[in-house]
Amino acid sequence: MEIKLTLALPRDAFSVPVARRVLAGALRSLGVQELAVTDIEVALTEAATNVLDHAHTTDQYEVSAGISGNLCVIEVIDRGAGFDSSSLGLADAEDGAEEGRGIQLMRALVDRVTFTSRPQVGTIVHLEKEFAFTQGSTLERLAVSRGADRAGTGTGPDSVAARP
Question: How many CB atoms lie within 10 A of CB 4?
Answer without folding.
Answer: 10
